[in-house]
Amino acid sequence: MKIFNVSQIRALDAHTIAHEPITSLDLMERAAKAFVCWYCARFDHQQTVRIFCGKGNNGGDGLAIARLLHHKEYLVQVYVVDYTEQASDDFRANLERMPQGAPLHFIKKQDELPAPAPGTILIDALLGSGLSRPVEGLLAAVIRAINQSEATVLSVDIASGLYADQPNGPEDVIVQPDYTVTFQLPKLAFMLPQNNRFIGDWQVVDIGLSADFIEQESTPYYFTDAAVARALIRPRLKFSHKGTFGHALLIAGSYGKMGAALLAGSACLRSGVGLLTAHVPRCGYSIVQTYMPEAMTQVDPHEEIITALPALEPYSVVGMGPGLGKDPQTLRVLEALIAQAQVPLVLDADALNLLAENPALLQKLPQGTILTPHPKEFQRLAGDAAHDYERLALARRFARKYQVVLCLKGGHTAVVFPDGTVHFNATGNAGMATGGTGDVLTGVLTALLAQKYPAEQAAQLGVYQHGAAGDRAAEQRTQTALIASDVVENLGW
Ligand SMILES: NC(=O)C1=CN([C@@H]2O[C@H](COP(=O)(O)OP(=O)(O)OC[C@H]3O[C@@H](n4cnc5c(N)ncnc54)[C@H](OP(=O)(O)O)[C@@H]3O)[C@@H](O)[C@H]2O)[C@@H](O)CC1
Ligand SMILES: [K+]
Fold first, then answer.
1. According to the annotation, is 247 in a ligand binding site?
2. Binding positions for K(+) (predicted)?
3. I need a labelling partner for 249 at 20 to 30 A (CA). Which of 63, 189, 370, 402 fits?
4. Does 108 share its domain with 195?
């Protein structure tokens, strides 16, 4: 699925109106119906719905939603925030369409706001993607009141006050919804951790905007959902043998951190690799042999850390990083690996920290190497960013410059290709913010590269499946109880 910026969304809107063709008022009606359909599937007639409308098209949506819910005999109260004389044409048309007797209130001053009523549903249709400046005055007061209420808050298209494709200021007044129901395509703002409070559980509803336009319009931003991920999966053919699926080498673990090697290794085994060899310090020998009978073990000469690179000939991919530590001898191994590797690499955790401390190595990374930093590791690699949009720009430049695939881990992990395109991931949950889940991802990616998935597709599919396994684990266990081994247990596609 593509993600468009605001001017592209406007162009898509205009293209649909001109070429379907459909009037903008009918398109607004379609959007309102899609919202109402979503609403009615989740909320019953018991709760009063308070709909707060601005005077642009987002407010027009709000009025149309109010009329449709009123006809369905929901208990609706409509509040038009009358902060300006200006109003969009479709807002005005929908105001005229409000049925006689529908409870419609105009709010000109803050003291005309209704008293809070816990248990109500608030629909936020104040401002949509047309936001052009920080919210002030009466609108800001209404937003503050919405945020202070104990009601369930639903934003139409996007939380009022939140920019769809650029950073907000720290003092900006923005609705904090429980849900955002957005039209046709997700907004870039939904992907970024800094907007966490201003998104809630977001859902896309289809309003039939031009599929041709969406296909032809180019964008650097994409969303990897179930359909995209499914299309990436290669079937395992009947006459395959273990050689078909590659032989992975995993260099991981140190004294006290053998768990990282086990998590990465078992995830690799559960992700379809043909053969796995784990290269671990001597202290890890019986641990790996006992816990992962399916893997072969190569022991390092050193008891506690990795100090030697094994001969690489047998292997079709190398994953390095989980639980390594940063000893100078381990750095030598990483340097040798980067210099000698003729196969794809996955570098994670301490391998990334070693890279950050030795940036000259970045220039030497084989093309298509996958790096999987969490935000702190990325900061060490690429420097500071003032906000998430800047971090995204930094990530795109980094991936282009070093011709690597970056998996910038987070709520919607951003998989950045060497061409600078960004593929945000749909799956995963906050339960996965716990030690070891990153090691699991390294194992999954290593297995996919062993199976000859190109680095870009391995990253996109691996990140998706890792998150999906985490979602299944959270369903079984709850997010609170989820641990990294549960993610391994739930791998499989
Ligand atoms: N995409 C689609 O295909 C469809 C989109 N639809 C809906 O349209 C919405 C976008 O509509 P929209 O462009 O009219 O924007 P919206 O945000 O309602 O209002 C803009 C107005 O507010 C003003 N304004 C801006 N910032 C302000 C501020 N801080 N404080 C005060 N005022 C401010 C701004 O003024 P201006 O910048 O011009 O000075 C302008 O007058 C979209 O989110 C979706 O809900 C659906 O109906 C159907 C299909
Ligand atoms: K809104």
1. no
2. 58, 124, 160
3. 402
4. yes
Ligand 1: residue whose CA is nearest its atom 48: 28
Q: Which ligand is nearest to the CA of 130?
A: 1
Q: Determine if ligand 1 sits within 6 Å of the CB of residue 345.
A: no
Whether the CB of 129 sits within 6 Å of ligand 1: yes
pLDDT, position 257: 98
Whether 113 lines ligand 1, by a CB cut-off of 6 Å, is no
pLDDT, residue 243, reads 82
Largest pairwise CA distance in the chain: 85
Q: The domain that contains 267 carries what CATH number? A: 3.40.1190.20
- Cβ neighbors of 277 (< 8 A, separation 6 or more) are 247, 248, 249, 250, 295, 296, 297, 298, 310, 314, 315
Give me the CATH number covering residue 130. 3.40.50.10260
Dist. CA 147 → ligand 2 center (Å): 13
Residue to mutate, 132, 162, 214, ligand 1, most ligand atoms under 8 Å from C-beta:
132
ipTM of this predicted structure: 0.98
Is 165 among the domain residues? yes
Residue 316 marked ligand-binding: no
Report yes or no on 124 lying in a domain. Answer: yes
Three-class SS of residue 12?
helix
Which position has the token pair 């030598």? 332
- Decide: helix, strand or coil at residue 480: coil
The response to whether 131 counts as a known ligand-binding position is yes
Q: Are residues 190 and 42 in the same domain?
A: yes
| Cβ-contact 450, 273 below 8 angstroms | yes
- Do 404 and 311 belong to one domain? yes
Last residue in a domain, options 217, 243, 262: 217
What are the backbone dihedrals phi and psi of residue 342, each rounded to the nearest 5 degrees, phi first?
-110, 10
Last residue of a domain, one of 166, 194, 217: 217
What pLDDT is stored for residue 399 in this prediction?
A: 98
pLDDT of residue 242: 79
Q: Looking at the 3D structure of the chain, how many domains does it have?
A: 2
* C-alpha 178 to ligand 2 mean position (Å): 12
In the chain, count H helices and then E strands: 16, 17
| Nearest Cα residue to atom 11 of ligand 1 | 57
State the 10-residue block means of pLDDT for the chain, 493 residues long.
Answer: 98 98 98 98 94 98 98 97 98 96 94 92 98 98 96 98 98 98 98 97 98 98 98 91 91 98 98 98 98 97 98 97 98 98 96 98 95 97 97 98 97 98 98 97 98 97 98 98 98 97
Check if 249 has its Cβ closer than 6 Å to any atom of ligand 1.
no
- Which residue owns the Cα nearest ligand 1 atom 30? 135
**Residue 224 maps to a domain:** no
Tell me the CA–centroid distance for residue 423 and ligand 1, in Å. Answer: 27
Atom of ligand 1 nearest to the CA of 129: 43
Strands (E), 281-400: 296-299, 317-320, 345-347, 370-371
Regarding the beta carbon of 157 and ligand 1, being less than 6 Å apart is answered yes
CA of 469 to the centre of ligand 1 (A): 39
Q: Is the residue at 1 inside a domain? A: no
Please indicate, yes or no, whether residues 211 and 248 belong to a single structural domain of this protein.
Answer: no
